[in-house]
Automatic annotation (TrEMBL):
Free-text note regarding domains: Consists of three domains, a large central CORE domain and two small peripheral domains, NMPbind and LID, which undergo movements during catalysis. The LID domain closes over the site of phosphoryl transfer upon ATP binding. Assembling and dissambling the active center during each catalytic cycle provides an effective means to prevent ATP hydrolysis.
Provenance organism: Streptomyces hygroscopicus
Region (NMP): 34-63
EC nos: 2.7.4.3
Superkingdom of the organism of origin: Bacteria
Entry's family note: Belongs to the adenylate kinase family.
Name of the molecule in the record: Adenylate kinase
Record gene name: adk_3
Amino acid sequence: MPPLTRIVLVGPPGAGKGTQATRLAGKLSVPHISTGDLFRANISRQTALGKRAKVFMDAGHLVPDELTIEMAKDRMRQPDAENGFLLDGFPRNVSQAEALDELLKTEAITLDAVLDLEVPEGEIIKRIAGRRICRSRSAHVFHVSYSPPKKQGVCDVCGDELYQRDDDSEETVRKRLEVYSTQTEPVIEYYKTQGLAVTISSLGSVDEVTRRALEALEREDDDE
């Protein structure tokens, strides 16, 4: 049986999704396809889709589902995705999940698994709200609990001031979690009804979470 290589990765802000997506894609030898990368690639190449998306992004709005879906469709048809892919940040709602199902159906392929990274809300707030960024162009990153600077409020590398981004404030994090709960958690339930979703804890070291994810995918493979 071929390994599971068509995977959707979901998880709340602060779950380490981007890090795990990159690592898992490398382990599985499939492209890591994130919505952010799709937007940037299309905009930098000035594709028709990119030009349309830029209008919304410049106005501070979310890129509409239909544009995101078209970009994902184009990306998944590239040669390097022929034997699989890891989707990160897409689908972000049930409408996108349904559209993805239709897209895959037209290509006569199916998803293998949906990997859900689970983190308690308190830990998410601690992870994100504890981040401090250096004001220098290098933007060195520290954390008040996990990787604190030697001197409070001062970057170890260049001596510049450390600050908390507005996006990292506890109030903003809670709002982001509300959006995730409203829009993306239903996606997990959607895939659970299809028997595709598998949930793992995203607590622990990066290596531990990667190992846990690969073991979960192997179990899913054995169950098929």
